[in-house]
Amino acid sequence: MTVTAYTLAVVLNLFCLFLGYRFLFQPASAATGYGVPADAGGDAAAYLTIKGVRDGTLGVVGLALLAFAGARPEAWFMLCVALVPLADTLIVLRHGGTKAVAFGIHFATAIVVLISAGLLFAV
């Protein structure tokens, strides 16, 4: 179970880094994939950059915790970070995104992050 817990945590943190990269370097397509399209060159540009920095930072912090502090601090981090995709679910629903994206991407991600936290607590 230890290998599964660590592998899932690493994959989720790398996914955050990937999302951060996309929002920084491909903001329009990243926003569309998020579920609420935005004009990357207009007023939304700053917010898309902020989202990219936020997601990338979460990935870096998660990897650092896992590497230097261990499974238990990473588990607490994952438990807290699960709030982000839960909030993203509500944001997508509130701003006209589809239920499929809100629940199929964001809510499902929150569940996977919570599973990761549970596995890390069990290590």
List the main descriptive attributes of the protein structure presented here.
single chain
Brief digest:
With 123 residues, the protein is mostly helical.
Tell me what you see in this structure.
The chain has one domain. Helix content is 84%, strand content 0%. The protein contains six helices and no strands. Helix 5 runs antiparallel to helix 6. The termini are close together. The model has no long low-confidence stretch (mean pLDDT 96). This is DUF4267 domain-containing protein.
Strand content: under 5%
Terminal CA distance reads 7 Å
Biggest sheet descriptor: none
Rounded mean pLDDT score? 96
Domain unit count: 1
The helix-and-strand class reads mainly alpha
Task: Output the helix-strand order.
Answer: HHHHHH
Overall spatial form: globular
Write the SSE topology:
Blueprint: H1 2-25, H2 27-34, H3 45-68, H4 71-81, H5 83-94, H6 99-122
Helix pairs in contact: 1-2, 1-3, 1-6, 3-4, 4-6, 5-6
